[in-house]
Amino acid sequence: MWDCPKPSRRSCRTKRRPPTTELDSAVEDRGRSPLEEAIGREAIERYERALARLRSEDRELVIARLELGYTNREIAKLLDKPTPNAARMATERAIVRLAKEMEKAKA
Questions:
Q1: All domains of the chain, ordered by start, with CATH?
Q2: Which end of the chain lies in a sparser environment, N or C, as judged by fewer CB atoms within 10 Å?
């Protein structure tokens, strides 16, 4: 099985390995692979379909928080919630409903 005598097997394995090269840190990442692109597109399509099935207020909450990055205080003011905490709770519930809709679309 081994082409080398037992004491020098390690050196034989080392000789069989292809030469290693250092990775060039100046080389740019070319972005996502075709598979990552396809998976990303599929997830975005599921998100968009699920978002369309939400109630109008839930859709506004999700978009304000996830897409626009509004704070709870800004969401409360925008959507007439009594407090930032009320906006946070409404947003969390809307995101849970979105996730459930996305799971339905996945199946």
A1: 35-106 (1.10.10)
A2: N
